[in-house]
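P.,

For your records, the input lines for the assembly:
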Amino acid sequence: MKIGYPLILINFKAYSEASGKRGLQLAKVAEKVSKETGITIAVAPQLTDLAFIASQVEIPVFSQHVDDVPPGSYTGHVTLEAVKDAGAVGTMVNHSERRVRADQVDVIVKRARSLGLTTVVCTNTPEVTAAMAALGPDMVAIEPPELIGTGIPVSKAKPEVVTSSVELVKKVNPNVKVLCGAGITVGEDVAAALRLGTVGVLLASGVVKAKDWEKAILDLISPIIKK
Amino acid sequence: MKIGYPLILINFKAYSEASGKRGLQLAKVAEKVSKETGITIAVAPQLTDLAFIASQVEIPVFSQHVDDVPPGSYTGHVTLEAVKDAGAVGTMVNHSERRVRADQVDVIVKRARSLGLTTVVCTNTPEVTAAMAALGPDMVAIEPPELIGTGIPVSKAKPEVVTSSVELVKKVNPNVKVLCGAGITVGEDVAAALRLGTVGVLLASGVVKAKDWEKAILDLISPIIKK
Amino acid sequence: MKIGYPLILINFKAYSEASGKRGLQLAKVAEKVSKETGITIAVAPQLTDLAFIASQVEIPVFSQHVDDVPPGSYTGHVTLEAVKDAGAVGTMVNHSERRVRADQVDVIVKRARSLGLTTVVCTNTPEVTAAMAALGPDMVAIEPPELIGTGIPVSKAKPEVVTSSVELVKKVNPNVKVLCGAGITVGEDVAAALRLGTVGVLLASGVVKAKDWEKAILDLISPIIKK
Amino acid sequence: MKIGYPLILINFKAYSEASGKRGLQLAKVAEKVSKETGITIAVAPQLTDLAFIASQVEIPVFSQHVDDVPPGSYTGHVTLEAVKDAGAVGTMVNHSERRVRADQVDVIVKRARSLGLTTVVCTNTPEVTAAMAALGPDMVAIEPPELIGTGIPVSKAKPEVVTSSVELVKKVNPNVKVLCGAGITVGEDVAAALRLGTVGVLLASGVVKAKDWEKAILDLISPIIKK
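Structure tokens returned:
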């Protein structure tokens, strides 16, 4: 499954609204909108739902987290191989709510590449974004933690954090794509993110906690469809 | 789904032999043997396969790990609610390969009880077993880490660790059941474990890495069937 | 150096008011009051000041934290041996701001005993207090985290947490002494703590952030002197 | 106190040979050799000995580790302010035996700069070295963990790891100096390290576990004195 851009990546977090069968329903809605509009909408379900959901939808599915261990005697760990066996196309890692160490990101990025999995490394400042880009993941996702879940979009509140990140990444490793996140809720936020040089957005509550998922996703991607 | 005793709990760990669809196959084999013999055989699949497998078998399914956070903004965490939504009956926690802190076990045990989930808290010494029993989980599972994966059964190599654990738990909290694990491979090990006062065993490689899963499980439970 | 009871243990935390030379001054004030009144006042300086302060005062000095590793190739770790070499009499461990796992407390308590060091294991609920008592430390210190630093004393706000802890410890391991902490500021709080069955208190901001350290400590111990 | 180059940084780790008063003796030997030869020899004592040793020697003293928290209610943590109050000139961080997360290194580097403290960020691969350089510390120290403590010098066994690191750092952030470590024992290793483009070495057992500390340090720096 190929990942197209612009990319909308919906993180289900540990929200009860998107857990178990409700998570599958949300993934199905994302799939429907994606098929109807041609926009790539990817989902990152709860870890426990990964294979359950990835086996039932045809949009890119990401793990929310992965550990740096190979298959083996590692109870309670999530391996890249398990992510792949589950049917996911890749994984997020280092989210502000589940940070790992740089040496672990290094191992994960290298092993993911050899397994054909896509990596999205989350970051919080332009400097950390540059640092993570130096490790060569497919994407970095800059998200100022203080804006996460606020509904105040990073693309408006801190555009300079996004543009500095984009510039530093270009300098350090121009092959790495940049997403941004935190506070993304409406189409305007997505349009602003793209104008700032990103290839898409990472968001969670803006969709997951919306009363009407389909409407929320359609609103999000409206500026991209119009283009 | 009620958990019967003696209990055989098969931990799939992060073994590639039991990942994704192969994990489902192993769970199906366990289900078949359980139905044919009446012995309770439970499985703990990889986290990413939890809902996938729990939705397709009718034996007790446990999570290998759970975090102490409630549903919400917790990317990459496993909540008790997600474990329940996935269709599992309970969760292991504090395995030697994924230890958590005592205050986290306390939160998990209390919240699991209110959600109707069964908790199996792993331990390594008689003292830690007593400590975890003081937190009131449904079961503790004593596993000397140095024997895990060796094929040398704790019930033979260190029977005194098991009997001390059983005695201390009786004193501290007699409602807590005791499992033992580490090195369990054949039926004789299970019989020995029960003689030492446990209600069952926790094992992994002894089954997961066996060439013939059905034969391995049947061999394991042969002493219990005979009874 | 023998530890007498009732015990007043002052935790310097990472407060700037008690860092470096200011930490030494506070320890000297505690020493002065202790010598003049005969009450045991112990201090837990910042890790970086441990040997510096322990080498210059004659009151019991505790480490704020210790790791479960032996001497060796463990950069940035605090060993029990280093704590002893620094001249401290023992160590706190598992403070709510620096929790460790139960198996680590088990290792630390056993090794501390063989080294002749005194252990104070911090806890947050009666159940965790019972659990830690099962590991056999010299003392447990129950501190509801939500009261820490508030000035609202646990002995008044949640006396039942203290009395339940004392009762459970008696049942699980009567050799373990109980301290309480959180919100302790004045002598009245200490008196209440002793009435509830503890052998003393653990406190921090109540003394460290006081304008006049000597006055604050004297006020704290006034009910014990009167006795 | 100014740090001169080439720099020899001796990490005492948690070795019993360099704990407490023995740590002070080793620091005194390093100071003597440094004064006699003019070569900068810095020491990183055990955390518990930091103020004790820094207050008694006139060579640069580093902390082995620091946490990313400011002064305050953080029991058992090491703050940059405590490191400074202890009399140290800076801190190592992210040693392979005590890794922290990239966002924590980011916070530490920025706060250390504002406090006038020197930062040495340890790394394990060229990619991680580049990543840490992007955060702008004063120095990075590349140490392949598999060579640590072996006596097989990185400068001989894996010179390409050192040269790649030096090159990547030049590209990402040329202001950052590069040290190398792992297996460094004799003067030849130091000479090789400098030829590969580093400004010095980080070592531990090569000196700490030597029977004659003075002889070991003199041997180490012999190629630099000759120059």
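Two observations worth noting. The radius of gyration of chain B is 16 Å. Residues 163 and 196 of chain B are 6 Å apart (CA to CA).

Regards
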